[in-house]
Design brief:
This protein has helices at 22-33, 52-61, 77-86, 107-114, 132-150, 166-169, 182-188, 213-231, 236-264, 272-305, 320-323; strands at 7-15, 39-45, 66-70, 90-95, 120-124, 162-165, 193-197. With 325 residues, the chain is an alpha/beta fold. The protein has 2 domains: 7-231, Spore Coat Polysaccharide Biosynthesis Protein SpsA, Chain A (Alpha-Beta Complex), CATH 3.90.550.10; 236-305. Strands 3-2-1-4-6-5-7 form a 7-stranded mixed β-sheet, with helices on both faces. α5 runs parallel beside α8 (213-231) and α9 (236-264) runs antiparallel to α10 (272-305). The longest helix has 34 residues, at 272-305.
Length: 325
């Protein structure tokens, strides 16, 4: 990611087959931002098959504040946002959707909220203009699950419109559909996260690119980040715990096999619990070995990346008092 922060604000817009909405959105952004911020606009064409790139090229030709990144194929919204983040130059980064449903007029409000002392301000589409069955209801269910599991109490993780301080996201790597989990990932690292109600407008052109299948992808990604957040430095706790549970199950099952053998006279080879005991013993050994292998991989990863397992906020040491006077 670029470390040279040369402008105040970077607006990042992933676009996939949104040729009809881009010019209007660009005009709105210029109207809102031109008198308030030193800014840049980064459009990321996510492998569009329509005229999106040509529209963006014309916009770029007439405005040096605009940059356009074009993917060779469709990689998805998370990849588009990651490319925008990595190529941005703003101290504050604000992504928003290209379909025009996010309101650019909310950007100054997000920045003002950020300046109250927060690291991330997440938009909340309290009144959504989407299909209730295929978009709104699944989104509410997913948001409730995400908030419960991550412990970050937001109403709308899926709202693209957010404001990030660059320092809060520069170390975050995105995969799958994980862009919606940035506030959770940052919060686990000690960042201050706030939420603000934003305007959500009906889609005027084109059609939505997302359906119910996205909810299942989000749940799977949630399982991944929860594991990474809780056990990325101690995977033996997970696999070892499962191994111990399997061993306890094998012990109980084995006792029952012996009970039926000597008390009721049931032959061991005719008792299905014998096979369960053997299965649980094997599972216990495999879980423990997987935990040990995961520990080796985790340690190798952290040492090779030179990454620490902690985040420092402040260091007070001898000499600070003299230097501050």
């Amino acid at each position: 990611m670029a470390d040279d922060r040369t402008v105040e604000l970077s607006v990042i817009i992933p676009a996939y087959n949104e040729q009809d909405s881009l010019e209007k959105l660009y005009d709105e952004l210029n109207e809102v931002l031109s008198s308030k911020f030193d800014y840049e606009i980064i459009f990321v064409d996510d492998g569009s098959s329509d005229n999106t790139f040509n529209v963006l090229r014309e916009i770029r030709k007439n405005d040096p504040k605009v940059r356009v990144i074009r993917f060779r194929k469709n990689f998805g919204q998370t990849a588009a946002l990651a490319a925008g983040f990595e190529n941005s130059c703003g101290s504050i980064v604000i992504p928003l959707d290209a379909d025009g449903q996010n309101d650019p007029a909310d950007i100054p409000r997000l920045v003002n909220k950020l300046n109250e002392g927060y690291d991330i301000v997440s938009g909340w589409r309290k009144k959504r203009h989407d299909n209730v069955v295929t978009r709104t209801l699944p989104s509410r269910i997913a948001n409730w699950i995400i908030a419960r599991i991550t412990g970050v109490k937001l109403h709308d993780f899926g709202c693209t419109l957010k404001a990030y301080r660059w320092e809060s996201i520069k170390e975050i790597r995105l995969y799958g559909e994980m862009h919606r989990f940035i506030p959770a990932l940052a919060s686990w690292g000690g960042e201050n996260v706030a939420e603000m109600v934003v305007n959500h407008r009906p889609r005027a052109t084109g059609k939505t690119k997302y359906g119910l299948n996205r909810t299942f992808k989000v749940i799977l990604d949630l399982m991944t980040i929860k594991f990474l957040a809780s056990f990325s430095t101690k995977p033996i706790y997970v696999f070892g715990g499962l191994g111990v549970l399997s061993a306890l199950g094998a012990f109980v099952s084995g006792i029952l096999v012996l009970y039926y053998k000597f008390v009721t006279g049931l032959a061991m080879n005719r008792n299905p619990l014998l096979f369960l005991t053997g299965l649980l013993v094997i599972a216990s050994i495999q879980f423990i070995l997987m935990g040990l292998l995961a520990e080796l991989l985790v340690r190798t990863y952290h040492e090779s990346q030179g990454r620490q397992i902690y985040v420092i906020d402040t260091i007070l040491q001898a000499g600070d008092e003299q230097n501050s006077t």
